[in-house]
Amino acid sequence: MESLPIFMRIAHSRCLVIGGGDVALRKVTMLMKAEASIEVVAPEVCSELLALEAEQQIKITRAEFSPAQIDGAVLVIAATDDEAVNTQVSVEAKVRNVPVNVVDSPALCTFTMPAIIDRSPLVIAISSNGSAPVLARLIRAKIETMVPATYGRLASLAREFRDDVKAKFTTTQNRRIFWEKVFQGPIAELMFSGQERAAKSALKAEIASGLDQQHGEVYLVGGGPGDPDLLTFRALRLMQQCDVCVYDKLVSKEVMELVRRDAELIYVGKARDQHTLPQEEINHLLVKFAKEGKRVLRLKGGDPFIFGRGGEEIETLMENGVPFQVVPGITAANGVSSYAGIPLTHRDHAQSCIFTTGHLKPKNGTQQNVVELDWVALTRPNQTVVIYMGLVGLDQICAKLVEHGLPATTPAAVVQQGTTLKQRVVVGDLTNLAEKTGLADLKPPCLIIVGGVVKLREKLAWFEPMQD
Ligand code: SAH
Fold first, then answer.
1. How many Å lie between the centroid of ligand 1 and the Cα of residue 357?
2. Which one, of 195, 405, 266, 115, lies nearest residue 450 by Cα?
3. Which residues have CB under 6 Å of ligand 1?
4. How far is the CA of 302 from the centre of ligand 1 (A)?
5. How confident is the model at residue 274 (pLDDT cuts 50, 70, 90)?
6. Is 273 marked active-site?
7. Taking the model in full, what pTM does it have?
8. Rg for the chain (alpha carbons), in Å?
């Protein structure tokens, strides 16, 4: 993050605008909304600024810029069309530690003005840090349509009752849960439909009857294969309202970014061979947090019920009477094959598809690690085989498939970090895939896809991120 988004109270504080044209006027209008005490400095000003002066909304100093004018200002905006003056304003403001914005010159600014959606007291600001103001404005237009104008009224209502709620509910967590219920429930609906009086009495009643004690629950959520756009709406909603997030290695950084900022994050590992916390302990951790009244997000890569041990986790929750819900995610087989341009079924190549795990297990009574699978089932014709957790055992897997009857020429692929910008795909056949993969130095997680459909990638590959 290149700059810190903050909202600054400037009511009745002296704000200086250097320049008297249209651009200055735009900035003045914005500062007026925040009730600043505005001084415009320019030898000449446009008629609109003159009108504001006549209404005593702003003060105009008819002069060239001089550094001493900055003294005592809480912020300065340079909006002249003279580059030298703009630069001088920037330099002098920086020397005095006064925040400065120079219109259209991000390099000269210590703060930039975001695109805003004003639903006062609710304000949404969007910034591209000066890189793409047009994009910021387009995003603003999208959000404008999504946030009803009445949200501002709702925020005002909340402000009116903030102290009462604080007095009634003792912990921040309980207050947050209370407000989330208000903002997502019938009280908000009453406000949106203009029944403000009814909304107010309903809110009063809700505060009076609310219990200062909350019940915890667990959300077992599939975070998908990596690309955050592949999350479900429900996943996102629950990710935004959890108190604690228990997550493992497979969840992508981009998906983690969408978890509520204030949630406590607990990493429970699960990288191959270095389980940070044993499964039993994870199960009990979820129970413990829920019993403390917390809303626990158990966030997993892909889908929780596909090689995700989700079943075991909810079993423990059930035994302990903890309420929970399960949100499916796009499993690696689905997401990764789509992004690799490999359809899992195809009229000419595969009428069925098997998902299996290629995890190595110690062979009974030996030091050796082996992959033990139902090779007969995996080598049936006209079928696609998708192997999770198979990178380490890849050479064994390919050899066994050939040994049990698949032609050595069967196309096969390994996809690294599918759906993300780090996606890489290695394609070969059962004789050379392991070697090619080794040479390419692929990093986990990797998914193996075996079958005639892999050939289709030659035509259908579409997702090609630029590698750094
Ligand atoms: N529950 C998960 C799977 C967990 S097992 C799901 O439904 O996807 C972990 C294995 O999933 C990894 O070893 C790898 O084989 C596969 N995997 C998960 N995400 C992947 C990705 N983005 N790219 C490639 N393989 C992935």
1. 10
2. 405
3. 225-226, 250, 300-303, 306-308, 331-332, 336, 388-389, 415, 417-419, 444-447
4. 6
5. low
6. no
7. 0.77
8. 30
